[in-house]
Amino acid sequence: MVTVERAQVLADEVLFPAASAVDAGGEGPRSHFDLLAAEGFYGLTAPPERGGPGLSLVDSARVFEALAGGCLTTAFVWAQHHGVVHGVATADRAELRERYFADLVRGAVRGGVSFAGAVPQPPRLHAVPVDGGYRLDGEAPFVSGWGLVDVLQLSARQDDLVVNGLVEARPGTGIRVEPLALVAAQATSTVRLWFEDFFLPAERVLGVLPHAEVLTAQARGSWLNGALPLGLAGRCARLIADAGRPHVAERLEAQRDGAREELNAAFAAGADIAPARAAAADLALRAAGALVTAAGSSALLAGAHGQRLVREATFTLVAASRPTIKDGTLDLLSGGAR
Description:
This protein has helices spanning 4-25, 30-38, 57-68, 72-89, 94-106, 211-225, 227-242, 246-269, 274-295, 305-318, 323-333, and strands at residues 111-114, 125-130, 133-143, 151-158, 161-168, 175-179, 191-201, 205-210. It is of the alpha+beta class and 338 residues long.
């Protein structure tokens, strides 16, 4: 059954014990993704009438948090899938929903997303209307799960519009793949994709939306992604308690709970979520630093949880971030008031 409690059990008993090996090996943990699919977690955000478990959005965020506290690599790649579930569920083309949706919910088809080419100003990936679809040129700078996912929801900019398409996640005509070497979460199989005269057929277009509307709609994704640094902070607190500093762990857990409440309140009110997202990222970095300090020099050894969690906390400072989140995080890291 898909529950927060079950996610925590999987994080504690399967994901976390393997996290250091996944980090050292640099290869995506396919067995982890197979397990999450078998347990029903690939359909987490699908509506109950379409095969979803019926969890509230708040509980769904707690699942994200629990899994991130087990293995950030697994959680980050898996999290991208839910953007595809949402994109296909709301697609303009019913035939795409009929072809993919049920398999996406079951995890038989696994998806990734790439918004980073279309969201920035100026955009990095451009869409030009042509007969039968669009021509794409430019780059998608940060695409995780390449080689681990089957399909990619790709966003490109046409003037003030964002064109969202569903493409096969494999090299093809007009696509060049550049692997990226990351200091953290290398096993996410993150790449940069270069497009030159890539043809996106009209029948693969999920929808075309105003750029401003896309930015507004990303509040949901930003809120869910805020659970990832909270998961790291929670894991750090537990390890600090194990290191004999329970009072430090209690303070960090209280801050994590407060950061979670701020995220939930901002999302529920439709308010700017950037300050709460920034606070979550700042907390993860501080908690990881506290873990290294509590564990001592052993935390610096290859394979130690401390050094890995510091690097992963750094990853959450920038992954799935946006300019307002970046500004808020910089204010906190430089000693500014919240």
